[in-house]
Amino acid sequence: MYKSLIAIATILLTAATLNTLAESNQGGSGSNGNSNTNSNGQPSGSGTPAMQGSQGIGATQPVQNQNQVKTQNAGEEQQLQVKTQEEQGEENDNKNDLSGIRSSVAQQIQKLLSTGPAAGGIGDQVREWAKAQNQVQTKIQENLANVENKGNAAKFLFGPDYKAIGELKMEMEQNRVRVQQLEQLKLKLQNQADITNVQEMIALINEENTALQERISLEEAQPSIFGWLMKLLVK
User: Fold this and answer.
1) Distance (Å, rounded) from C-alpha 220 to C-alpha 231?
2) Fewest C-beta atoms under 10 Å: which of 1, 204, 215, 217?
3) Contact (CB, 8 A) for 181 and 130
4) What is the C-alpha separation between 81 and 87, in angstroms, rounded?
5) Mean pLDDT of the 20-45 span
6) Where in the sequence is the signal peptide annotated (predicted)?
7) Mind listing the pLDDT tens digit for each residue in 84-96?
8) 40 phi, psi to nearest 5 deg
């Protein structure tokens, strides 16, 4: 009986010892698994997640700012190009319209020069009017050429040809006066073909004045550095 108790005690002691050793081994492996953590229980890498996130934001923010500036500059440059193209398109359209109108005016003048004789010499007066208007058209062409032949660089520095523009404005005023004269002559005509030609002439001159005013406005609206000074000197 005594021997049996000793055997049981030995077995229990051995089991307890083995259990203690097993728990000790598990604790050692656990400490090795946590060797990469710091005192706060966080991974002991190059920095905490907050620090790493702040470093990422700091590194990317200048790049983002540069991209925003580049995008903004590209957008402004594109808008400027579009605006310049639109202005050039308007100028070209005005040139084409004005050229077409002036061609029609020249053709209509030839019709008036062929006006037949009428009572009171009205036909002769119409022909004289057409001759005088033909001279006005020549002056308009010369001043338009001066305006168009001035280079873009010169316009940017000194503005458009203000002298030629001033001449065009005076010729536009002559056109208005001469339209009134032609209106009075029309009332005295009896031939319907002559009346129709005069009416068309009046309409064409009014259209020419409108196109000339648009062209002058486009020229004067262009920015320049010393244009204001040149404008004062011309006056």
Assistant:
1) 10
2) 1
3) no
4) 10
5) 48
6) 1-22
7) 555 566 666 677 7
8) -90, 5
184 closest CA partner among 120, 103, 137: 120
Owner of token pair 């190009």: 81
User: What confidence tens digit (pLDDT) does each residue in 43-82 have?
Assistant: 444 444 444 444 454 555 655 666 665 566 666 556 555 5
Residue 137, strand partner residues: none
pTM of the full structure: 0.59
Bridge partners of residue 37, in order along the sequence = 43
Q: What value does the mean pLDDT of the chain take?
A: 76
Domain ranges of the chain: 84-234
Which residue type, as a one-letter code, is found at position 40? Answer: N
Residue 69 CA to its chain's centroid (Å): 19
Residue 109 in tokens: 């003048």
The Cα–Cα gap between 68 and 76 comes to 12
Q: Distance between CA 229 and CA 235 in Å, rounded?
A: 10
Integer CA distances (angstroms), 215 to 82, 91, 182, in order? 20, 7, 25
What are the DSSP calls for 131-144, one per residue? HHHHHHHHHHHHHH
Is the backbone of residue 164 left (phi > 0), alpha (psi -120 to 50) or beta? alpha
The type of residue at 233 is L
Q: Rounded to whole angstroms, how far apart are CA atoms 173 and 136? A: 11
